[in-house]
Amino acid sequence: MTLESLLLSQDVDMVRVLRPMLEKLSIQVEVCQEAEKASQILNTEKFDAVIIDCDDVNGGLEVLQGLRNTPSNRSSIAFAVLNGRKTTTQQAFGMGINFVLQKPVTGLNAARCFHAALNFMERERRRYYRQPVEMPVTVILQDKPYRAKSTNISEGGIAIMVAQALPKNGDARLQFALPGCKARLEMEAEMAWCDARGNVGLRFSNLPQSSRDLLEHWLNEQMEKSAGPLEKLSGSGLEAIQ
């Protein structure tokens, strides 16, 4: 699985240390040297890891402070690089940072940090990953069944298309079988959004462990089959619910 990261830094020596180490971990690196440009990128593209040299880049601290308010990267695994003179470790963690690196960044310290973070990054990738899939879905609302067709699915929810408007009140029950799976899943869900064209987003709730395991296994298989960088998410279009 190839992960993607954004590195905001003007420190050539640090970039020289981090880039090959991250690439060995199958983490692609996009380097940005300007805080304003980094903010623009973070508002439109999704990254598994965001690494911010917040003390030595003009405006870097502001990027760090605003990271959790971006539509695409509020849950990305975030790293703050500190120079020991400005931002404290406690302040960085208070802004929602997951990991802290202190300058000078060495290959050994960076490797330890990113090895520790790798499982979190992979888990977050699986959580937000949306698999396009068309399959019949039965939606039961207020004891009435409605026929629908899915457009994509994630660990947290499903996007469907329906021919008739669904009641907006009350919880729903979903019934469907994932392509290639014999078992038919049944689970509770709540409506998260809908539009006038019959597109509906449903968030899973009270998902049985057996159904969760099957869904996660199926999604992992689809991710491996894709064998390429996942489509970046911008928060628009037909999306399942995280």
Structure description:
The protein has helices spanning 12-24, 35-44, 60-66, 89-94, 107-128, 209-226; strands spanning 3-8, 27-32, 49-53, 77-82, 99-102, 131-132, 136-141, 144-153, 157-162, 172-176, 185-194, 199-205. The longest helix has 22 residues, at 107-128. The model is unreliable at 228-242 (pLDDT under 50). The strands form two sheets. The protein has a six-stranded antiparallel β-barrel with strand order 7-8-9-12-11-10. The chain has a five-stranded parallel β-sheet with strand order 2-1-3-4-5, sandwiched between helices. It folds into two domains: 3-128, Rossmann fold (3-Layer(aba) Sandwich); 131-226, Beta Barrel (Thrombin, subunit H). The chain contains six helices and twelve strands. It starts with a strand and ends in a 16-residue tail after the last helix. It is elongated, with a radius of gyration of 21 Å. Helix 2 (35-44) packs parallel to helix 3 (60-66). 31% of the residues are buried. The chain is of the alpha/beta class and 242 residues long. Helix 3 (60-66) links the parallel strand 3 and strand 4 (77-82).
Jot down its keywords:
single chain; 242 residues; alpha/beta; Rossmann fold; Thrombin, subunit H; 2 domains; six-stranded antiparallel barrel; five-stranded parallel β-sheet; 12 strands; 30% strand; elongated; disordered C terminus
